Amino acid sequence: MTTSDPRPPSALTIAGSDSGGGAGIQADLKTFAAHRVHGLSAIAALTAQHTRGVTAVSVPDPGFLRAQIDTCFDDFRITAVKLGMLANGDVIRAVVDALDSHVPPAIVLDPVMVATSGARLLEADALAALRDQLLPLATVVTPNLPEAELLLDRRIHTVDDMQAACEALLAAGANAVLLKGGHLEDHGDVVDLLATSGTVHEIRHPRLSIEAHGTGCTLASAVAARLALGDDLRTACDRASDYVHRALLGGYRPGHGDVVVLDHF
Ligand code: PLP
Question: Coil, strand or helix: which one is 95?
Fold first, then answer.
């Protein structure tokens, strides 16, 4: 790939489909489009889902997932990959193999484990594969606090705990961590930390009391879109976080349950 390549940058999401259109592949593609990035998708899991929860999950054959990924790399200029719901260890191994052979310039790992509604989106015994095999491949990992607690097997109650958790994730092999503080029991601003080896950058937004669905997917795919366009990591995370804040402010309620963020404005 050279800079004279006439193809525009594309971003590939490898994630789960949300039939309700609020999270997963559907949120990712809308976010890519809102950032004027061509979006590609390799579907790693199918969920029957609405704004109140997940009612069924089906996981495609890992060989078919690999075919989707290889076919995308065979034609498009993929400048960033976003990883979301990967369901189980077989899927994770297929993704690791594919990333090892295609080596995209940027990888954003959203370590999706459990939906807000409580549904499991990653089998419990796949946690080690995600941490040991995928984490070191990612440019940045974007856990929320419950996900960071599961990855590290420790509780996180304060911003100081968040800082220590970032250090522990870097020590576990992460290249950079965007730790989202929205679940902290605090009535002040929401604080997210972007940590790389030797630096911690704080991203702050006023806390919104909105029960929303798909914000984690939207944030990670916005980071991937900004990286795909050539932003450095810090700028990408600042802009993505701002984007999610504005998308939440414009959110709406298409079903009986959670708000879905507004991806186009
Ligand atoms: N469904 C799919 C397919 C997802 O990828 C995600 C992402 O985290 C979710 C559901 C969870 O969304 P939420 O935690 O907002 O319920």
Answer: helix
Domain 9-260, CATH number (from 3.40.1190.20, 1.20.1250.20, 3.50.50.60, 3.20.20.70): 3.40.1190.20
* pLDDT tens by residue, 158-194: 999 999 999 999 999 999 999 999 888 877 889 999 9
Pinpoint the alpha helices (H) of the chain: 24-34, 62-73, 89-102, 127-129, 145-152, 159-171, 215-228, 233-249
Distances 138 to 49, 99, 158, 251, 260 between C-alpha atoms, Å: 28, 10, 26, 29, 27
* Tokens encoding 54: 């997940």
Predicted structure pTM score: 0.96
Pocket test for ligand 1, best of 13, 14, 17, 18 (most atoms within 8 A of CB): 18
Q: Tokens representing 74?
A: 């065979």
Does any ligand 1 atom lie closer than 6 A to the CB of residue 84?
A: yes
CA–centroid distance for 256 within its chain: 25
ipTM greater than cut 0.90:
yes
Cβ of residue 111 lying under 6 Å from some atom of ligand 1:
no
Boundaries of every domain in the chain: 9-260
